[in-house]
Specification:
The chain has 13 helices and 23 strands. By secondary structure, the chain is α/β, with parallel strands linked by helices. It folds into four domains: 4-99, 3-Layer(aba) Sandwich (Rossmann fold), CATH 3.40.50.20; 126-175, Dna Ligase, domain 1 (2-Layer Sandwich); 178-299, ATP-grasp fold, B domain (D-amino Acid Aminotransferase, Chain A, domain 1, 2-Layer Sandwich); 314-421, HAD superfamily/HAD-like (Rossmann fold, 3-Layer(aba) Sandwich). The radius of gyration is 27 Å and the shape is elongated. It starts with a strand and ends in a 13-residue tail after the last strand. The mean pLDDT is 96.
């Protein structure tokens, strides 16, 4: 297969990060990112470009310019509004949009349309068009077009319902569903066959995204809901729906989204790479799905990536309590050294190890060839005397770092700061 060039837009969403994580190691894909605002995307996409906002008329021309300049084959939408907009403008775009058919995207973007489309199905929650018709409280209101739980809230009486509707138009008034909430990840192959259903918990939510989740067995009711949606809507690749149990424990549909979800990485970990499988659909390929049966808990939190103005061509690194800590190789430091080596940096092991350093490296399966040179010093030696070139220095010892910085004037790092040196871009 030839390499496909895939542009993820907008590249700064949790959806985009999951697409990036799912595709970054494929030898068949080269990734690009596009964003309309400064964001985390520039930390994780090596090729990241600025384009107009989704509703700005110049967007399509800007995307076509990127497509022409970088031979982009596919644009992978990473936001609901972008998915809808690009699907509508597919004929004007030179690259193919990774999307389901337009009618599907239109219905799924609007909860009123979704509920009307599946009207009469047992899994559709009770809704009211008019406040005067509401015959039970509390009720739950949410924007017909929205995401991330923005604007959704519980209303306990008619007075506050009037206030909510007056403040915001196009609200869906829905029965209150007090039970547990789940996301169901699905994959429909290019022949329309539903090939994967993955039900996962939503144990902790942040801005509408499940940041603590685990896969659980798919029950017959969820399987039937997934099959019904797939039979009634034309899906292409990955999609998901969310359900919440009513007061009787019966699941009711909250929404359907024909796109990647930010927490689909849980399915990826068991072997079902939904962003990649969706591209296989786009490539006209038939697929097999093999998954692991093991249990995994996913828990996400904020993570830091760094930009720096440090320029260096050499890395000087200590061994004891630095490269090897408590008798084990420091996995983050060894990963950084390999990355630096592959980027053409000179790697120098600068050590006061008392034994045979080659034997010790061999004991920990560290190839001495990783280092351009290995310099062994006596205990009273001064490491600063051996540092040359435009270098950085990594050592757990404060006194060693202090001497090196004072004499050589170069950046020095303890183990806790190595994370700032990684280049996470792909």
């Amino acid at each position: 297969m030839d390499e496909s060039r895939v542009l993820v837009f907008p590249a700064g969403t949790e959806i985009a990060f999951e697409i990036r994580n799912a595709l970054k190691d494929s030898k068949f894909i080269k990734l690009f990112g596009a964003t309309s605002v400064p964001c985390h995307a520039e930390m994780v996409f090596e090729n990241c470009y600025t384009v107009p906002m989704v509703n700005d008329p110049p967007l399509i021309d800007a995307l076509n310019m990127l497509t022409a300049e970088h031979d982009i084959d596919y644009i992978y939408p990473a936001h609901d509004d972008v998915l809808l907009h690009l699907t509508f403008h597919q004929e004007e775009l030179q690259a193919k949009v990774v999307t389901s058919p337009k009618p599907t995207v239109m219905v799924c973007r609007d909860k009123w349309k979704t509920y009307h489309f599946f009207g009469g199905q047992y899994f559709i929650p009770k809704t009211w068009m008019n406040i005067t018709d509401v015959d039970e409280y509390p009720v739950f209101v949410k924007p017909a077009i929205g995401q991330g739980s923005k604007g959704a809230r519980l209303i306990h009486d008619r007075k506050h319902l009037y206030e909510a509707v007056n403040c915001e138009k196009d609200l869906v008034i829905c029965e209150y569903l007090p039970g547990d909430e789940y996301t169901v990840d699905c994959f429909t192959d290019r022949h329309g066959e539903l090939r994967y259903i993955g039900k996962r918990t939503r144990e902790r939510i942040r801005t509408g995204i499940a940041v603590r989740s685990r896969l659980i067995p798919v029950d017959d009711v969820v399987r039937d809901i997934a099959a019904t949606i797939n039979a009634e809507m034309e899906m292409n690749g990955a999609w998901f729906f969310q359900i919440r149990e009513d007061k009787y424990g019966q699941p009711k549909l909250l929404e359907i989204a024909p796109r990647i979800a930010g927490t689909m990485g849980l399915s990826r970990i068991i072997g079902v790479n939904l962003p990649l499988l969706t591209l296989y659909n786009m490539w006209g390929m038939d697929v097999d799905i093999v998954k692991n049966a093991n249990d995994f808990l996913l828990d996400r939190a904020f993570i830091s990536r760094f930009q720096t103005d440090i320029e260096y061509d050499s890395v000087f690194v200590d061994f004891d309590d630095t490269l090897v800590v408590r008798g084990e190789v420091n996995p983050y430091l060894i990963a950084f050294l390999h990355q630096a080596h592959d980027k053409g940096k000179r790697i120098v092991l600068l050590t006061k190890h008392s034994g045979n350093i080659i034997e010790r490296l061999d004991k920990h399966s560290i190839n001495p060839l990783l280092f351009d040179s290995i310099i062994s010093l006596k205990k009273d030696g001064n490491k600063a005397d051996y540092i040359t070139g435009k270098a950085i220095f990594i050592d757990d010892s404060f006194s060693e770092r202090k001497r090196v910085q004072e004499k050589c004037g170069i950046p020095v790092f303890d183990l806790d700061a190595v994370e700032c040196l990684f280049d996470w871009r792909v």
